[in-house]
Write a structure and sequence with these properties.
The chain has one domain. Helix content is 60%, strand content 0%. The chain has 4 helices and no strands.
Length: 130
């Protein structure tokens, strides 16, 4: 979105022509993802802890896995946000391959969310099965 806005203004402001370079947009997307993670990360983790969205471990599993009990799950929300938002901001969204990759990422995120949601609601570690 930002790419289309700024690159579209290249005829009025020639400096915006630099946004045609993939390397610049990749660097800007990387910085955007980093900033999103650093800014949203603590908030998301706190919120997941408040909602008691925690990891469920098997009782018959190894004793050292008991440490994971209560660890906030659904952290993939933060990761997917830090991938999809910069992609939509800095990528050429008219490219069908960008759209396919973004849609695939989102589809797998939905599967992961449903898996974690089932684990949290049912309070067992089975989740989705094939």
């Amino acid at each position: 979105m930002i790419y289309h806005l700024l690159y579209g203004l290249r005829n009025e402001i020639s400096a915006f022509n630099v946004f045609r370079y993939l390397t610049l947009r990749t660097a800007l997307a990387t910085l955007t993802a980093l900033l999103l993670s650093l800014i949203l990360g603590p908030f998301v983790i706190r919120r997941l802890e408040q909602l008691r969205v925690g990891q469920v471990t098997r009782k018959e599993g190894p004793a050292h896995h008991a440490v994971k009990t209560g660890t906030p799950t659904m952290g993939g929300l933060l990761i997917v946000t830090a991938v999809i938002v910069p992609t939509m901001l800095w990528a050429d969204t008219t490219n069908v391959f960008i759209l396919i990759a973004t849609a695939s990422c989102f589809a797998f995120a939905v599967i992961g969310f449903v898996d974690d949601y089932i684990k949290v609601v049912r309070r067992h570690n089975q989740g989705l099965s094939a």
